[in-house]
Amino acid sequence: MIFLGNTFHGGENASYPPAVDTKKVTEVQLSDGTYNHLVLTSDAAMEVGDISDEWDYNTKINATFDANFDAGNTGFSLRNTDYVVIKRREVGSTHWVIIYAKEIHTVADFDISFTDKYARSKTEYQYCVSSYTNGIENSFILDNVYSEFDGYYIADKDCLFGTIYDVDGCDTSKNMANQVIRLLNSKYASVVSNSDINYESGSVTGSFIRMDEVTGEVRPDDGLRYRSSLKNRLVNKKPLILKIHDGRIWMIKVTGAPTDSMNGHQDLRSINFEWAEVGDVEDMQSLFENGLSDVDAKWWTS
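^ that's the sequence the OP posted. Answer follows.
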């Protein structure tokens, strides 16, 4: 506006508002004017000449008022993100396990929901959600989560079955390959171990009952279908994850025939099966090669 030769709000710093705590800003309102850029930042040293459409850790709002008005950082994130990656590690450990990776092409691809079904009980994890460009991590968010549950859970990429009823102690054996040789010139036998075999095996028993996920009430009408679906998973010859309340967890295959027995009532059925350990739950390559993860080889050394 020009009035008597003066231009009000014409200088580059003329429209600067007073400094405020950006954490307490809940609303920004502009009216009766023409605007081409609005920036809200916690960087008190920023000059007007420094304003751009790039985001940093101080940026709260960056609106360019172009044809696609957007005060968020989705446009910036889209230009600088090839993949969104979720990884976790046990608190105190330096070993990250990438549990999810999604290629990003559009803003809609940022709509991500993922459940980590392979977290062990009684364990505190640190989770990291990262943005990757050209194979390089450029930004991330960290959060700690304590995992704890009761009973047993059996899972793969597509399913999760659990029970807290009539569970046994899940007794296990530690297996290795040895050969005992009886020598003619020795009082004692000689044991030869020529194999790297070192795995656990055991058995699981529990009464699997269908529960309403919201109310927690028993759904006896769905019990038959639930147990039938579980047994089909147990005999499909594919690896599964078995985890129990005390923190033990294994990658397993079912050995032998699962049994389904009445446990005092016709609607209370006890399922038992034997299993053998077939891989490492904390190894990304082992998870992928056993069909328990979609995180492929390009992430195994990240």
